[in-house]
Amino acid sequence: xxxxxxxxxxxxxxxxxxxxxxxxxxxxxxxxxxxxxxxxxxxxxxxxxxxxxxxxxxxxxxxxxxxxxxxxxxxxxxxxxxxxxxxxxxxxxxxxxxxxxxxxxxxxxxxxxxxxxxxxxxxxxxxxxxxxxxxxxxxxxx
Length: 142
Description:
By secondary structure, the protein is of the alpha+beta class. It has three helices and seven strands.
């Protein structure tokens, strides 16, 4: 995990991740939403074009050690056509930066850090087996 992904996954800070993404030459628009406490929703407008026809999204699972959900490189522009509507399940990930094994585990830095993976701790595996963590509706508005 990059330092930005680590901070997002562990404490919900997006400042470093935003800087990493803004500095990447192949990344277009970058933005953040609001935090959602328990259940709820948020709306976020992003601008994409034919050269940046993919979306990625990540968000922490608080107060977990380093667990997060998201998706990467969702194609919203196919051929020469914009996709009007997609519903995407958020996939669970472990950032590999904290060795806590329970949802409310104290900070326990992982040395050396492990690669980002799916759930690896038994509590996270069990939670993932219960069903979706959330979903995102992507709709074309313009």
